Amino acid sequence: MYIYQKKIQPKNTAAKITSALCLLCGAALLILAQAGYIAIPILAQLLGIILWVASIYIASSYLLRNYTYSVQINSIEDDDLTLAERYDLVIYENRGKKSVKVCHVEMRDVTNIIKITPQSKKNGKNKDVKRFIYNTQFAANQKIEILAKISGEDYSIIVTYDEDLLSVLHKIHSNDSLY
């Protein structure tokens, strides 16, 4: 049973514009190099190919992929459990009609839930933490970072910002009533 489930599909106007510009600039460089308008054509061709690869990467990472975030009841049945022990965060990656589970975190393993803003990005990052990014918003101002300690290792899961998801995660983490 889900207490929260939402498929996040941001508009990604910046990703569309950046991908299109990389594609057009790369094509222009390749055409100019082939036509002989550039003194060192091999550098222009190399830069054109790099821009095309960047365009494909941006399109596949931010435009053709989205995620479904769900907070669901786990299979443990006991009336004395806290909310964090009862719920799991599950993330599914969607590409077209195909959906694959890419992340499953028990909420009892979560140590902190942070709203990332441009001001909080300046604080620096711990290099010993393994990071998993499930964010499809290109150049996002806000994100949610979920810190977890699983089997003695620290993990950071970064997801697209959603006020409802943040609220549900904070309530479960602090053992507040969900309703």
Structure report:
This protein has four helices and eight strands, in the order βααβαββββββα. The protein is an alpha+beta fold. The protein has a domain at 13-63. The strands form two sheets. It has a four-stranded antiparallel beta sheet with strand order 1-2-3-4. A four-stranded mixed beta sheet has the order 5-7-8-6, covered by helices on one side. Strand 7 and strand 8 (153-160) form a beta hairpin. The mean pLDDT is 87.
Overview features:
single chain; 179 residues; alpha+beta; four-stranded mixed beta sheet; 4 helices; 8 strands; 34% helix
| Alpha-carbon distance between the two ends | 15 Å
Largest sheet, spatial ordering of strands: 1-2-3-4
- Summed up, the helix count is 4
Number of strands: 8
Radius of gyration: 21 Å
Q: What amount of the residues lies in strands? A: 25-35%
The main sheet comes to:
4 strands, antiparallel
Overall form? elongated
The helicity comes to 25-40%
Give the oligomer, counting copies of the same chain as homo and different chains as hetero: single chain
Q: Please trace the helix and strand order, writing H or E for each element.
A: EHHEHEEEEEEH
- Quickly give the structural class: alpha+beta
Q: Kindly state the mean pLDDT as a whole number?
A: 87
List low-pLDDT spans.
none
